[in-house]
Each structure stands twice: as structure tokens, then as C-alpha cells.
Amino acid sequence: MGWGHFKWPQVGEFQVATRGYSVARLRSDRSLLGAILESFVFSELLKSVAWAQERVSIFHYRDKDQLEADFVLENAAGQVIGIEVKAAASVNRRDFSGLERVAAAAGSAFVQGILLYDGDHDLSFGETLRAAPLPTLWA
Fold this sequence. Notes:
6 strands, alpha/beta, six-stranded mixed β-sheet, about 30% helix, Trna Endonuclease, Chain: A, domain 1
């Protein structure tokens, strides 16, 4: 699949990304928190890929319409999982636009799209799309 190489605009290290930001500032600036959460999830995915029994590649997806998914994971068999990270306690259908675009691009290789969010419930948004609390990373 032509996902393109993953380009990470931040340093990618969670400790570096959080240096200098108070808890109060993070609570008041959700966009800043979102960037830090993306960095954190990226570092957790890198750890998981390092010990995975099969080769898994991590990419970022953005199309000509600027729809994007934070992470696209593809295994050696070509199966694709999309992951979006949101620093929000609730989600809606529009939050899945990037994942839906990844699903369309991957076709039958698309296994699942997961939106990780700051909520408490696992929510289904169709056969292959779901929203899951951030701690799902370790489940």
C-alpha cells in the first residue's frame, strides 16, 4: 500500500514533549494536550511494534483533501489498522472521517479503525470503527 513514510513533527519522546507544561496549562489547552497524547501513543506503538511477533510498520495518513489518521499500522500480510487520537471526553461520527478515508483506501485489507479518546466507554461506530478509552493501549 502506498501509505508514505511516517513523518513525526514533534521529537517523539514523551518526556521531551511534556517538559515545561503545567497540569493546569494542559487542562486549559486541549490542543496542546492532543499533541502530547499523540506523542505518547506513538511512543507506546513503537514499543509494541518492537516486541511484536510479526513485522508491523507505522505510517501517517493524509490525503489531498487534508483528511488524516494519526497512525496507520500495516503488517506483513498487508492488513491495516487505523488509529486516531483525540483529547476529548466524547466523540461523534465526524471524528472518524480520517479513519473512514483510510478504510476506503485500504479496501478489504482494512481490519479496524480505532479512535482513542479521553472517555470511559468502548463505543461502536459501525462494523470496523470504534472509539475506545486511551487505556485500551495496554489491554
